[in-house]
């Protein structure tokens, strides 16, 4: 049988390991690079810029003349 002392040491050891794993997970999660977040604005910005410049060419020239 397992004694009370052995059970106590096992619980402390496993609890400590669990806490270290949680801290490690959060450290890695916070410091991870977000490739989806960094590439999405660039693609949408380029797509929006090209769409706006090609669709609103006449509006841009008329607006520039009005100013």
TrEMBL record:
Keywords: Endoplasmic reticulum, Membrane, Signal-anchor, Transmembrane, Transmembrane helix. It is found in: Endoplasmic reticulum membrane. It comes from Penicillium angulare. GO terms for biological process: protein N-linked glycosylation via asparagine. Its main location: endoplasmic reticulum. Belongs to the OST4 family. Residues 36-67 are annotated as: Disordered. It holds the Pfam family Ost4. One of its GO terms (cellular component) is oligosaccharyltransferase complex. It is a single-pass type III membrane protein. Residues 40-67 have a biased composition (Polar residues). InterPro entries: Oligosaccaryltransferase, OST4, Ost4p_sf. This is Dolichyl-diphosphooligosaccharide--protein glycosyltransferase subunit 4. The chain crosses the membrane at residues 7-28.
